[in-house]
What we know:
Low-confidence stretches: 94-101, 169-193
Strand content: 5-15%
Largest sheet: 8 strands, parallel, barrel
Mean pLDDT: 84
Amino acid sequence: MDEPELKEVQIGRINAFLAHHNANLDTLSKGRQKQFLQIDTAIQGRLHRIASAKEALKTYVINISTIAMDAGISRKTFYNNELLRMFVESYSTDDGKVAPASALSSARNKIADLDHQLQDMLDRDIETGKLWHENESLHNEIKNMRVQISNLQQKYEEVRIENDQLRMRVRSNVIDIGTLRNTDSTTIPMKKRVGTNPDTFNLGISYGTTLDFQGSLDVAAKCGTQTIMLYCDNEYFEVPTEATLKLYNIVIHGPVNINLANPDPRIRKTSVRRILAIIKKCNTFHQYITSFVLHPGSADDISCLIESLKEILAESKFKIAIETMAGRGKELCSNLNQISTLCNSLCGYSNFSICLDTCHMSDAGYDLTDVNGFIKQLLLAIPIEKISCIHINDSMNEVGLHKDRHTKIGTGKIPLKSLAQIVTCEEFFKVPKIIETPQNCEEGKLTFAEEMKSLLNKPK
Length: 460
């Protein structure tokens, strides 16, 4: 018979058995149908071998164990399904017609042994299950303890930061100790000053590049600050001595002519490789870098940016800060919702952070006239510890025009008082703040010192 006829005979044979149990092959699931066909094929093969070699009948006994092996189905399946088990037993050599009495006796003994073995296996499975549940319970207890430890560590860090802030403010004689003890830190007016020294607030300048690293640091010192941001376009620069670096609060700004969010893998990978080359060089003096600022790039969504940042964050020994943007075209990170999504997506990277830019935030549509309201809105979207740098810039444009036009402090549309509040408020006390306004560098006419002074003197 050809294959279709054999299969038809096989189905008829199975249905003849199922008819006695008020069932039919078509009424069963496809998985169960397949099992019946596999079992029948195994049985017919074994019957064929029995018929052709009765001398070796002991080897070709039909029982649950042998058929399970031939059909490729676990023995446990048969013992869990009565219908499958009865189907095998309908072909059993127990009827004495297929095998002599001696073979049947041997088969029964083997079946009994297999039953004992199966029972032992089931007992072991049950014991293993108990142990697994016990281990799972211990694992859950450990997990809960880790959560408690994490909460305690977070609380400790909050208390430590608060104490540092209180010590600094008491030391500066801004508010007397009695006031500090009886005042909620969130209600202390932000207009309270800690001093007029830029370094007190980590207020600095954006000047020069890493190609003239030492020269740029010297300019910052002349302007009266030890906080500086330098632009870095590639890894080919000379690093100043450690004795010099430890005197400064250094922020590095990565190249701006890249797009980490580009959906084209070739372009995106080129941008990532370029950043990784710079990071490898900066890792050699990572302990002196406060943060490394990058523009997010332009795209329809942030998915590609997230993938690029994961690769970069994995290699960096310092904080990588994504800068908030003005929202020109498809520019990313111009709204707090998107920035919040970015923070959540990269919450597993402790070195991921955000760089705020006051000009960009204003141009993106956030009114900085009410600084208290803006900060509350900001901190609902971004954890305070994720803000590692702030660019202090005035804007030539009205709120929400998405044009990104920086101008000198006090000459644009953002109130000087608002910028001064951001510089001196408690929330951003330890965050480096960088004045990134246009300067006449070629003629050496820098206005950084005057701009810092205007921010630190009480606005009218």
